[in-house]
Amino acid sequence: MQALAKTRQLGVVGNTSFSKRKRVSAEACLSLPQITPYYSSEHITLYKGEAAEILSSLGENSVDCIITSPPYYGQRDYGVEGQLGLEVHPQLYIDRLVAIFHQARRVLKPAGSVWVNIGDTYWSGKGKSQGVDTKQKYRRFDRPQDKTGERPWCAPKQLLLIPHRFAIAMQADGWIVRNDNVWHKPSPTPDPVKDRCALTHEYVFHFVQRRRYYFNATSVSVPSHGRKATKTPPSVWTIPTTPSGKMHRAVFPEQLMTLPIQATCPPNGVLLDPFCGSATALATALAASKDRCVIGIDISEEALKEAKALLPPDNTNMP
Ligand SMILES: C[S@@+](CC[C@H](N)C(=O)[O-])C[C@H]1O[C@@H](n2cnc3c(N)ncnc32)[C@H](O)[C@@H]1O
Q1: Could you read off the pLDDT of 194-231 as tens digits, one per residue?
Q2: Most exposed of 2, 168, 234, 297 (fewest Cβ within 10 Å)?
Q3: 300 lines ligand 1 (CB under 6 A)
Q4: Does ligand 1 lie within 6 Å of residue 248's CB atom?
Q5: Sign of the CA dihedral with 102 first, then 107, 113, and 115 last
Q6: Containing structural domain, residue 228
Q7: Domain for residue 313, yes or no?
């Protein structure tokens, strides 16, 4: 734990270089950003860079709702310097993620909500993987959880319980946890294990900043006994992982975003995804209301290229 404490003192944000030039065009819906966007149009702004750094330059109280899925711990190598998810210790990952949402708090309106889709990771401690991983061909990289870990937390076969540790750390940072919604996957990726149950769920945490916040309950209520939709929606969501046809390798289904968008992003509001990837959340929000503005941040140019191509055409602000 001493080594961990020392590494934690070194700081939480990676070195990512991006231009900090003053912005030339005036985006609708945003106040005083200082970073040149990767792409900007009347309703869409995409920023390339490290989430915490970009967030620190966005206007205070400028966003109604944040919906995102950060990289999960030790699951993927996006091949970009400064990426989140490959920290040597899970606590460093959690610390960094909470620090990113700390920046987001300034940007979010007081009545705004944050939704975070996050999955868990097992510590393996098996050493470097040899050859092809049968579970996932993209896993052939130096995964932190394959190293010898600090016990008792990082013991071989341990489910790290990262989602709830993250939520507890968010509570400690002042957020109110409203739900730990469970995303149940009826047709998950095969989990070929013989001594435990297969993991068929992830979480979608709902965080707010104060007791009263914007929540359009009517828009998300469900039918009760086949009658009018008046019932509160349940906290377990059964949503299949459908093939996205996208280049991006960790896309979440649009359906996962529907309830968060309807309930907590006003039809003319501003939605932000600080790990936007191929822009699923942004596109879903715009498809439901053309009056929304959306902001995406991603450290990977490859992801942003795809996001830009997939987002609906809009009156561009770019020169
Ligand atoms: C799980 S994916 C998001 C996928 C997205 N929800 C979609 O449907 O396409 C996480 C994204 O975070 C980006 N990322 C990783 N580290 C980052 C960082 N420090 N700051 C901003 N983006 C980062 C990755 O490039 C990746 O596109």
Answers
A1: 999 999 999 999 999 999 999 999 999 999 888 899 99
A2: 2
A3: yes
A4: yes
A5: negative
A6: 2-11+24-126+137-308
A7: no
